[in-house]
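[scheduler] slot 2 assigned
[scheduler] job type: sequence-to-structure, two independent chains
[scheduler] chain ordering preserved from manifest
[runner] begin chain α
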Amino acid sequence: SSDDIEDVSLFDADDDVSRRSKKSKIRHPVASFFHLFFRVSAIVVYLLCELLTSSFIACMVTIILLLSCDFWAVKNVTGRLMVGLRWWNQVDDDGRSHWVFEARKVPAQGSKSSSEAESRIFWLGLITCPVIWVIFAFSALFSFKVKWLAVVVMGVVLQGANLYGYIRCKVGSRKNLTSMATNYLGKQFLRQ
């Protein structure tokens, strides 16, 4: 599979941004709300589920639905609106799979097309929640709660997939993420 990166204008966002008032720190409050709502709701339901009901199936279905809504909302809506990034898989006529990672074009004036507040909300939610699900995974594993491990693995996979996709969009699909991490850690080590 080959990776492509393209600079495109998503939904004519560059034109809309130039028309909007610069006073607003959060340009897409509904997208910002739903970016965090589904993620945080899934975590809260996971934490409080055993206190609220004794039905594991009801809890599992609720958590999986919230995680699925989060995956769809982040991948298809909030990533485009809040930071101007999107990714998807495309299958060509030969049956080969191509991953496409896109980033919004930077406006010619040099002004930022997305607000800093939205960018912080997006990346904080995108990074923090998968880390929390990984902690839940170790907790379920070491406490021998095997039935909850399946739910937690779904959380790690769905939120980890979005995190990976958006990191590839942000840093560029052609760069090797492992070598970038090694270079960063090497620089940090040399500074100390």
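[runner] end chain α
[runner] begin chain β
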Amino acid sequence: QLQRRGFRRLHGVDGSAGMLQQARSTGLYEELRLCVLGKEPLPAPAEHYDAVTVVGALGEGQVPSTVLPELLRVTKPGGFLCLTTRSNPSNVRYRAGLEAALRQLERSGAGQKLLAQEVEYWERATSEEESTRGTGYISGVVYIYQKCPVPRLEEG
């Protein structure tokens, strides 16, 4: 989907060598690196990427929401952050913390929210307790933010 929308040079990171091997087998990625998000810096220079996506990793016991500044660091001014998280009962506290961190990003002027969209059938539930209204699925949310350009300081 990303390539169909004009993103041609895809780089990926994961904390699991096995997942990187699976990603490598798709032939979609130009570069893949081992990196544990939230524990070590991303292996990229500042303001390097037009868009940074995190899918399937922002959740309770996974990547902490404190990773947002690091994601912004590698995003070009005017570039995009696309983040996802689950809305299931076991992720309620994490989602609240993530949304608080995103509001702080906006208040600081570092990013602007473009979209926060609920997706009812995000992924299959692994238990009835996690299922959204008995559908057999977990709902989720997609956030898209744009990194704000750094304002120029006026001389004088």
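[runner] end chain β
[qc] chain β: The chain has a mean pLDDT of 92.
[scheduler] slot 2 released
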